[in-house]
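Dear colleague,

Following up on yesterday's call, I've attached the two folding results inline so they're easy to grep. Please treat them as preliminary; we haven't cross-checked anything against experimental data yet. The first protein's sequence and structure tokens come first.
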Amino acid sequence: MLINGPADVAGAALDGLTRTADGVSRLAGSTATAIRSDVAEARAAGLVAVVSGGGAGHDPAHAGYVGSGMLTAAVTGALFTPPPPDAVLDAIRAAAAPAGALLVVPNRPADRLSFALAAEMARADGIDVVVVPVGDDVSRTGEGRRGLAGTVLVQKVAGAAAAGGRPLAQVAALARRAASAVGTMGVALGPCTATVAGVPLSGSELDSPLELGSHQGLGFAPGEVEWGPGASGEPGVGRGPIGSAYQVAARLIAAIVEDRGIVPGDRVALLVNGLGASSPTELSIMAEGAVRALRSWGVTPVRVWAGDFLTTLDMAGVSLSLLPVDDELVAALDAPTTAPAWPHTTAPAEPGLVKAPPGISTAPGELGLDHPVRLVLEAVAEALISVRDELTALDREAGDGDLGVSLALGAAAVLAECPAYPGADGPAAVLRAAADTVRRTVAGVSGPLYAILLLRAAAALPDSPGPRDWAAALRAGLDGVREAAGAEPGDRTMIDALAPAAATFADRLDAGHPWPEALNAAVDAATTGADATVDLEPRLGRAGYLGVRVLGYPDPGAQAVAIWLRAAATALHP
């Protein structure tokens, strides 16, 4: 592949884009964040900012959709890796006017968490932010629907609404309507090459796109394809023989029509998307096949686009996206945009830099030795450090093996930094400072989840909280984690311990029980909930790939919640 090195892909591609696309600049100080060159004018006009992004390897998504009438900014991470929350936050700060910002996020767990944490930090800065995830993959169901090329159509609709001067609530409503309606199904004719290792990445034989292990030289059997692959080479719904292009198009269209409930007489927009190594000729043939298939269903394609919109490096294959439309959505899709990757021509330009306005920072303070919040933070940290090996061993059986180490590293950082937390500014400020520590030091999905929990809890606290205020804060933190992770009780996650604890604490207080008794009951509820995950089949995250193999082991994340809740209760009432 024509690259300088795996770590340079996103940045070098953006450098080239800013030289060939008029109106797109790199955000000053960023690794690979594209932003409208006229962002200052857009902010001055009071337009809602539309921000999106994801891992590298999907060009022209998402930097290619930066421009008037589409995205205000796009944040790119490393290869198939979500951008870090701080980079997303920088983009929000640079792009958002007082009208606020809409985040259009491909529905993959790590991407959702990164953008959700950035949104929480932006809200703490006083920026109004709404997150709209896009899960258009019809090969999956429920929260497991991945974000594919249909994300581009949602970006176009949202960008048009924002350019029209609509308020954030209306922009978000139209984006949600498009996101809930669009469906995508694809087919891969062969593997892509993972530039971090230089070997083929072949989909269903791998648990995740970068776990290459000893899978060298993977290929497809002659005439074999993979149906429903993910955008980063993740598994589809299985492999099978390929037919003619029209037969492939008919199968893809049928999957989307049936899943999305499209009926005769409906109008749709059709996006024929190359995965990176399919020729324009092939895409044109597939476009014709898709239109014929739609007409056989009695469905009218009123808009059709074909090209590379969201790719998987050099993968051969195609995806089809259908968006059922009415006059309002057609007008949004037709609205003008300067985004270079939306079909039109732009003039070359020299690259520019746009500096982000300074963010809001909290000055270091002092948290006294006997401050109740410090006593709790230190007790929780010491407890998590003490069970590091236990949680690590459990996570090797029922997860990806890093939970104990990740939480222990974060706990050690909290112990080191909490004396400088701003105790004089109140408990909410202390929790925000702890969230900052956690997001910087806890790896994996746990860092964003716990940071969101702390930020939401802080936002719910008054200046001088009582027991009921703390119960409300715990509930708010729970809600933040549920929204970010897309998890509910029974999904075998930390929610299975956190939800019963929050409910029990509030219920006991409402019934008139003393707060120590209510808190101990909440700890018992968390422990019972965590233990019950032994019999739950996982639906989300890494454990979801392991399936029934984790039965008999409690969920490590839920166990961790029970452990730190007990430590907190003991610190407050020995």
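Below is the second protein, in the same order (sequence, then structure):
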Amino acid sequence: MSSPAPLQTLSRDLSWLRFNARVLQEAQSPDVPLLERLKFLAIFSSNLDEFFKVRVATLRRLVKLKKKTRAKLNERPKRELRKVLEEVSRQQEEFGVTFREQLLPELHRNHIHLLSDAELTDKQREWAKHYFQQKVRDLLSPVVLDDTLHHLFLKDQTVYLTFFLSQPRDPEAGLADERVLIMELPTKRHGGRFVRLPDEGQERYVLFLDDVIRIGAAELFPGYEQVAVNAIKLSRDAELDIEEEVSGDLMEIIRSSLAKRATGFPARLLFDPEMPQETLQAIKQKTGITDEELVEGGRYHNFRDFFGFPEFDEPSFYYPARPALPHPTLPRTGSLLAAVGQRDHLLHLPYQSFDYVTRLLREAATDPRVSAISITLYRVASKSAVVKALLKAAKHGKQVTAIVELKARFDEESNLFWADKLQRAGANVIFTPPELKVHSKLLLIARREDDESTRRYGYFSTGNFNESTSELYTDHGLFTANEQLTRESEAVFDYLRDQQTVPELEHLLVAPFGLRSGLNALIDYEIKQVHKGNEAYILLKVNSVEDRGMIAKLYEASAAGVRVELLVRGIGCLVPGQPGFSENITQHGLIDRFLEHSRVYVFAHGGEEKVFVSSADWMTRNLDRRVEVAFPILDEALRAEVRFLLDLQRHDTVKARDFDNNYLLPEDGKKGLQAQEATYAWLKGLKRRQRDAAAKVKPEKKQKI
């Protein structure tokens, strides 16, 4: 019997790099407003930093494992690392070309000049020297790399400037005077990375802080004939490896790991290729960094600082304002609990305001009939209105239970801070066990009604309880008092409290104990429908498809004749359109103004379409090692609403790309459809359409008396 053919997939890391290439495409797109294109460069750079800190660092640790161990893990990290670094190098080169040959000339055409120190006029140079003396010089503290310094520690994600000082060889002594110094670029203390020079008519000028220091370098070191100033930036291994920890106090593990994060193994040292070899050699010697961590960069690093590029009073440079829309069925004032008690409501972020969530929490905090509030907290804002409402509820005597996730990468410190606040206020704070991450977004409110019965009010979401990201991420949130859903939500919270009793669920699909099997059953049902001659399809919108088991299941469905449409923003390891196993699968992704974050699963289900909205991507970690919730949209009108918005994305011909990152274009003569713009316009008119539909149902006329 022959062995089955290996599963055809694209590697997770190379797929992620394809995603970041789509981000770079937005920076290159002339249809994107000019200064928004700079922000996409910042996003690309920030993404790549995290990729090196986490994924590349992980690959390098795998390379260092013993060969037998790697064989057991079925890993070939050396080859994967080589491919990854080759692709990163290619993208870095494209990034530089985009910046130098596209954006800088476009800024110039729009009378904005991002100058280097070599491009300044004499007048501007004098201004920059004066600025250096008045605003910058006192912020600098260079360190000499000499024999007295035994080890140099470089902070993570921080730009440093190096100085190579040299004097001609002394004829008498026969020696040249050379020194290498280094210092942190004082971006935070300065108040940003950029310096705005005086305008000249309609021409506006901007200078990197780096170049202000280059201009002042001769003044800093007056005894040297040559001063070469270059930039470096280190990214350190940020993977906490918490999943490997199975015992001990998790809070202490997290705190310890956060401390180690700053001193983690070097993952990448970006350096200026114009840097003198003497400088680079000194850096390597004092830090212990090896050649394999060196990555050739450019003159400037940390392009994420372009998030703080100076603003200009020109609306065309930015996306048009899209103020959050009022919700068509939730009241602007008055009781939200009463409104939720009457019917289900679906919230679409960021098109509609997250304030409805914080208003509901504030109302529950002071409602004398509310007895308990339970919530899962994965990522919260730095000045969290959500947690402040929970603190208020605790002070009003409500039983507040907060399931706080301490393993939310890069937000652990913030979560610890708010957890401490909640504990001091008397809330019941539950930290998840080391082997399990709670990624679901659930809120449950218990209230005593007029008849003295207890009624539950719930909010299920694809997005975090975070006001900041709610303005940037597209998410769906369901307000409901449906007894079937809220009772099962309470069962999930009971499980999170004791981690013992696996809930019996009929409507919710919950990982790690029911989501995978539930999805497999739904896919199997579609396969059966094909065999019966019925229409069968699956529509899947997620951030990532990586789990090999689910990919194999989708291949099985495709081979059986089920039509599968994938809308994947980020990682997509499934290979669509391949004869014999995936010819019935199509895949495209959407990158636009807002970050697509909602997950929607649609199954034809024999003509009785099922629509689930979820916090879970189709990744192994989401299905097996996290608490995730997929919740059905039971209200027929809301189900149609989700499907309509999903269909807009399915038919996008402006911002959608196929599996190979080619734009999906409209047919000849047809206008392109931009899903996010169309979504805003449709939701803006939703209340009017509902009102018009209601008006068509005319009540019977009363007879005059």
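For the second protein, one point worth flagging: Residues 122 and 128 are 10 Å apart (CA to CA).

Best wishes,
A.L.
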